[in-house]
Amino acid sequence: MRADDFEMLSSLLKQRSGLVLTKDKAYLLESRLMPIARKRGWRGLDELARSVRLTRDEGLIGEITEAMTTNESSFFRDRKPFDLFRNIMLPTLLQTRASRRSFRIWSAACSSGQEAYSLAMVLDQESAKLAGWTVEIIGTDLSSEMVDRARRGVYSQFEVQRGLPIQMLVKYFTQVGDKWQINPKLREQVSFRIHNLLQDLTSLGQFDVVYCRNVLIYFDQPTKTKVLSQMTRVIPPDGFLVLGGAETVLGITERFKPLADHRGLYVHADHDGNAAVRRAIATAR
Ligand SMILES: C[S@@+](CC[C@H](N)C(=O)[O-])C[C@H]1O[C@@H](n2cnc3c(N)ncnc32)[C@H](O)[C@@H]1O
Is the CB of 208 within 6 Å of ligand 1? Predict the structure, then answer.
């Protein structure tokens, strides 16, 4: 691939999605964008790059951006963040939100929906404690293809074998041919929409719990800082932020602090918020 085409495509990608592609990953552009070029009858990426330059076709640019995202996910990925929800966040919210009996969860960059559905399964298992409560789970992703997949809630044998306990497969899925579909009751509890983390986050409203895992790793430092700063505006002072195992706020923002003894779980660095969460956690135990 020509150096100027790489420069143009990688800077377009960063501008549209935040994803940073270093030169050693040029092969990724080749392997992921060639199918888009072939579909249009172009022989190579130089023709694709020329078309982008000439037409600035939003449909094509959107397709390129989506093709470059990594959509790896699984049910109960890394396990611990879901134990934290069941054992720390949920008991705390049951106290702190007792007067309004409702809370909202956001699975940001949800890919094909496994994280959001895993949280819905935990909530269903804890439903005895939630009688009379309204809990909203929203999953969002940049990729329209992933949002469609998440909405359908249909997964392969391989996907349901990764991390999903067999009892949950039996309880929450129906076999459809060689695939497995999430049951309607669970699907109704979760809504999915297209949303770009680089855009205004406040348009989605406030969230008591935000899972934003395994997406910031693809961004550069200023973009991580920008996204996390905006997160402070959508999470109330006594709300929670969950990041992925390879992600941290250290050196990126001072607005969130890790919650001691609970790896991956963050609260507002603001002392009052932090103290309120700690008090609630202590009394919820
Ligand atoms: C590796 S997946 C992580 C899925 C899930 N959060 C998990 O941890 O299993 C990363 C997702 O981030 C999405 N993504 C990348 N850039 C994004 C952006 N700027 N806004 C929203 N989603 C984005 C991708 O489409 C992809 O589905």
Answer: no
Ligand 1 center from residue 123 Cα (angstroms): 23
Per-residue pLDDT reduced to its tens digit, 22-43: 988 889 999 999 999 999 999 9
Domains and CATH numbers, the chain: 3-67 (1.10.155), 80-152+185-284 (3.40.50.150)
Instruction: Record the tokens describing residue 91, joined without a space.
Output: 């008991």
Is 118 close to ligand 1, i.e. is its CB under 6 Å away?
no
Element (H, E) at 30: helix 26-39
Q: What tens digit of pLDDT does each residue of 117-167 get? A: 999 999 999 999 999 999 999 999 999 999 999 999 999 999 999 989 999
CA distances from 191 to 23, 50, 153, 168, 239 (A): 37, 38, 11, 20, 20
Please tell me the distance between residue 153's alpha carbon and the centre of ligand 1 in angstroms. Answer: 17
Residue 210 Cα to ligand 1 midpoint, Å, equals: 14
| pLDDT above 70 coverage of the chain, percent | 98
CB-based contacts of 200-203 (< 8 A; 24+ apart in sequence): 200/230, 201/227, 201/230, 201/231, 201/233, 201/234, 202/230, 202/233, 202/234
Specify the ligand 1 atom closest to the Cα of 66: 25
Enter the pTM of the model.
0.95
Residue showing tokens 């550069």: 220
Side-chain-side CA neighbours of 113 within 13 Å: the count stands at 29
Chain centroid to CA 174: 25
